[in-house]
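Re: the request from the purification team.
They wanted to know what the chain is likely to look like in 3D before they choose a buffer screen. I agreed to run a prediction and write the result into the notebook, where they can find it.
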Amino acid sequence: MPKPDVQEYLESLGRFGMHFGLGRVRRLLASLGDPHKAFPCVHVTGSNGKGSVSRMLSCILEEAGYRTGLYVSPHLEKFNERVSVNGVDISDKDLGESLAKVRPIVEAMAKRRQQCTYFEATTAVAFGYFRRADVDVAVLEAGLGGRLDATNVVDPLVSVITNVSLEHTDILGRTIEKIAYEKAGIIKPGRPVITGAWDRRAVGLIRATANRKKAPFYMMQREIRRRSNAVTPEGQTFSLYTDRESYMRLTTPMMGDFQQENAAVAVLAAEILGEAGLNISPENIRRGIARAVVPCRLERVGDRPKILLDSAHNPAAAERASRAVAWYRKEGGFERVHLLFGILGDKDLANVLKPMLEVADTLTYTQPTTGRALTVEKARKKVTAMAGKKGLSFVSGPSNALRAVLKLAGKKDLVWISGSMYLVGEVRAMLRKSGQLGN
């Protein structure tokens, strides 16, 4: 874990909340010598799939021999996960040194009433570390939205908008069009943009923004044809066809047919990067897709009972995850599914939980350890009404809830933990400590 003073300082910035805009982060980065201008990058946003696409693309670039930085959020178990080079998380030492360069500037700006947010400071830490690590290229995942996100100071080789659905509506807007507008804000003049979005309203707005900025526009559904070859509980095999190449029998260990779509977006991005001058072969793409694994995206751990760690926390992700779990239950021969669920107070409880309840036999509700959580007390009435006759319990605290659901589950059952990245991150750390996760 990061040293206590590093962790405490970063967390202290969280009390200033989220204040969107690029002015502060630009001033912060300028004081550091604009580290983000020291390396080319790919910028990725989207309502769902951005973590998977970012990880797949970084693995492809690593396979091609490029020293690759990866910046993602949020972290699951420790802050260091957010910043990595060639798959190795930033060390506590490097994190401390990177923050030591950022902190005095943040504090000086605060005295001028220009208080930087947590995400602005951590973005500056990542950019500074990538410059010192002398990366060849970086894959940068936007934190929230895109247009006013702290990562949107870069001029990327290619911008990627994975998809658009209703999420963070209190911040980004309550319509697909408004959310698409925020996502499309990462498009830069003359720079290619790729989208995997299906919604016509979103695609239309993204295309219009690209046309206005004279940015080449690529829609995954038109550029790539896909065929699923085999899907098993251990992974899936599929083929992708573009005008440039046929990628026969690609493999991924990750569950969910939506990961094939994510792979298609990553492959298209890799091809566009090839046109921009990077040397990426079909074999680099094949090997990168095969080894990309994203924690807590229907991650399978433990045994007897098998446990699924799943970070779905918006309606679109919940629908996709629920279909995958229903399939996994059937193919894996699991007798019952026990859902351990917790969610943040600003999320759409009803539409996230509803598809999950169609799959689960029992529900254990708990609250993630964060001030943003929907507490057991506040959730009780609505969750009870939704659960109907299913086995239902409310347990205070993730550790108690995990013990309760594991006690409930038989050896041939499936335990599914979902609803919040905070919750699955906490549970993942507990499982690691108990030896069920490995190192």
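For the purification team: The chain has two domains: 4-291, 299-430.
Please add any questions underneath this entry.
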